[in-house]
Structure of DUF6460 domain-containing protein:
Amino acid sequence: MADGSLTRFLGDSPLRVLVRLVFLSFIVGVVMAALGLEPYDILNSLIRFFEGLWEMGFSAIDKALRYFLLGVVIVVPVWLIIRLTRAGRS
């Protein structure tokens, strides 16, 4: 990729994107620590989820669907709000 296409892909210069991601990662880390969440807790939860998926068989599909819908309830409205605010700036 040429430098211009990389900047276009990232939405800003690579250095600015890196600084923004580092800053946001730090803020999210502080919030997660305040909530008592640790990276290993999340990793262990994912491992337990997939082990449960393997052990339970088809009943795990229902559990996976519930997780998916729970995520959709948060992700889709946030995505829609971001898209609408960006469209308003154009």
